[in-house]
Specification:
The complex is a heterodimer of chains A (253) and B (320). Chain A contains 9 helices and 10 strands. Chain A has 253 residues and is an alpha/beta fold. Chain A starts with 5 loop residues before the first strand and ends with a helix. With 320 residues, chain B is mainly alpha-helical. Chain B is built from 13 helices and 2 strands, in the order αααααβαααβααααα. A two-stranded antiparallel ribbon of chain B has the order 1-2. In chain B, helix 6 (156-179) packs antiparallel against helix 8. The chains are: A alpha/beta (253), B mainly alpha (320). At the A-B interface, helix 2 and helix 3 of A face helix 6, helix 7 and helix 8 of B.
């Protein structure tokens, strides 16, 4: 077993009296898809927000390789190779698909003090943006503004923006939400390819996609981890079946 | 597809270059004043139109440079431009750095209120103390000296071209910066700051740099205004001065450089025209601005886009 890239230990987050995430420990290995499932309100999105630095943990620690990133702001975590997508599509609506990805690529290069040369003349950033769009199948749509794209295209664009930063870790918050079956198949195939050289934490409700992709599964209920392990073991876990999957869902698998 | 504003820019530049050949003294001075306000509006456009930071205290940096110039000028001899201009810009930049480092920790309506509060502090500092004449203000008896043979800034024609050159430099500088990686990052922050942070941009320092740059350019405008009038007073940094320049920007069109200049020109010319009609010119101005905002949400510069709309279907643009 290789060294995990991202390790959360006893992570907790309170919002006033509500404990959204409670004592969650998980480790994300390279080249794997680690899916987190659970009913609505289980704390899955909060967990991603903690790992990405969008929220600060109340308790626990997060390590990225040898670094303790528990209290790092989100932009610094992103700079160290952790890219994320959002549950509710979060792109620059008025910008073209290309500019969305170009900005993403720019973010990972020295750019604060570059005030003279036009931004679109940095060839390596342009190349990274084009490559990212090509990977998700949006190469032909690069000139279209994000606002003019379909929902499925915008979800794919989110993933392309993450890829344009050449991340080691992808935190994907329901990438299939609201997608038609055809688009879902496309994204599942894409994620399968990406798993070859990324560590992917996948929060997803689509059980077909989860069992098709996941190397490891963590089930969360009420902010806590109910079970964690190989997909087959989780499928057979009686407690999980009772708490979440439901008998029909299990028999369907 | 946005139609290029470049032809209009060229026309405007030629008109401004040739204007003194036909203008009477009054109009020469008026256009000089408008060009100074154009620089001021451009500086605010960088904040409001491109970075999404609505400041209601931008006149503070305009006034601080003006006061720096007045206080640094000798009593009778002309001050050197090369000494007083850098000093005035540095004072505005330093003030913007200090205030920006504090106010940029807030956002939205709080940002508006805190920028206003700091500007009012600057206003009352000069209004209520004896420094530089208190509420009466202070006169500077001579225009600054550029120390270039053949250039006499006391001459209104020379001063006109001096201001025009400053406007051209500011316009070109902003156009270049806004195309650069730094400028694109600012526009990303305006569009969606949260997403920018998630991508890895340390957005605070981009905003602070924009705030300081905008304050410095406002300082240039304040310096020129003080040099032109030979007089500074606290009203230069009062909240209605900040409000006026914001209205120029809204009128002309935020988020385009030409819109800021157009806003300054139309606001002042309308003010001249309305105040010739009635002493209640502000009422007319208010009605005009409300009408402009309702009919042209993108400002007067939006007229340029409107004109081409009927042609769109023929060219077979993307209809998604």
């Amino acid at each position: 077993m290789t060294e995990p890239v991202l390790v959360a230990t006893a992570l907790g987050r309170r919002f006033g009296g509500l404990v959204a995430v409670d004592d969650v420990s998980l480790s994300l290995a390279p080249k794997t898809v680690h899916a987190v499932i659970g009913p609505n309100g289980a704390g899955k999105s909060t967990l991603i927000n903690l790992l990405s630095g969008d929220l600060r943990p109340s308790t626990g620690t997060i390590r990225l390789g040898a670094l303790d990133i528990t209290h790092w702001p989100s932009h610094r975590i992103a700079q160290h190779g952790v890219a994320r997508s959002f549950q509710h599509t979060n792109v620059f609506a008025a910008f073209s698909a290309f500019e969305n990805c170009r900005l993403a690529a720019q973010s990972h290069h020295r750019n604060f003090n570059r005030w003279l040369k036009p931004a679109d003349r940095y060839d390596d950033w342009n190349a990274a943006a084009e490559a990212a769009l090509a990977i998700v199948g949006l190469a032909a749509r690069s000139g279209i503004t994000a606002a003019a794209m379909s929902h499925g295209e915008r979800r794919a664009l989110e993933i392309a923006m993450a890829l344009a930063t050449h991340p080691a870790v992808l935190l994907l918050d329901e990438p299939l939400a609201g997608m038609g079956p055809e688009e879902s198949t496309h994204i599942v195939a894409l994620l399968k390819r990406l798993a070859a050289d990324h560590a992917i934490l996948l929060v997803e409700h689509d059980m077909d996609a989860v069992f098709a992709l996941a190397d490891r599964l963590t089930v969360m209920v009420n902010g806590r981890i109910l079970a964690s392990g190989e997909p087959e073991a989780i499928r057979a876990n009686a407690e999980v079946q009772r708490a979440y999957l439901g008998t029909e869902a299990v028999s369907a698998l | 597809m946005k139609r290029s504003l470049l032809p209009w820019l060229v026309v405007a530049a030629i008109l401004l270059l040739l204007f003194p050949a036909v203008a009477e003294k009054f109009y020469l001075q008026l256009v000089t004043k408008i060009m100074i306000l154009s620089i001021f509006a451009l500086s605010l456009d960088l904040l409001v139109g491109y970075t999404g930071l609505v400041s209601l205290g931008h006149a503070a940096y305009f006034g601080i440079a003006a006061y720096t110039y007045a206080l640094a000028s000798p009593a009778t001899d002309p001050a050197s431009v090369w000494l007083t201009l850098p000093l005035a810009l540095a004072a505005s930049a330093a003030a913007a750095l200090l205030v920006g480092a504090l106010v940029l920790r807030t956002s939205g309506v709080y940002f508006i209120m805190v920028t206003l509060a700091f500007a009012q502090m600057a206003y009352y500092f000069f209004h209520d103390t004896r420094i530089a004449g208190g509420s009466d203000g202070i006169y500077v008896n001579t225009r600054p000296d550029a120390l270039v043979p053949g250039v006499d800034l006391a001459n209104d024609l020379h001063f006109y071209y001096f201001v025009l050159a400053a406007l051209a430099v500011v316009f070109a500088l902003l156009a270049i910066i806004l195309r650069s990686p730094f400028g694109r990052a600012l526009q990303g922050i305006k569009a969606n700051e949260h997403r920018m942070r998630a991508l890895g941009f340390a957005t605070l320092r981009y905003k602070l740099a924009a705030f300081v740059l905008a304050g410095t350019i406002a300082g240039l405008a304040g310096y020129l205004a003080a040099a032109k009038e030979g007089y500074v007073n606290p009203e230069m940094m009062a909240w209605h001065q900040s409000g006026t320049v914001l209205m120029m920007l809204i009128l002309g069109g935020m988020g385009t450089l030409l819109g800021a200049v157009l806003g300054a020109f139309s606001y002042v010319l309308l003010q001249e025209w309305f105040s010739a009609l009635t002493k209640h010119w502000q009422l007319l101005m208010g009605v005009f601005i409300v009408a402009a905002v309702l009919l042209l949400p993108q400002g007067l510069i939006g007229l340029h886009q409107l004109r081409m709309k009927p042609r769109l279907p023929r060219t077979g643009g993307d209809r998604d």
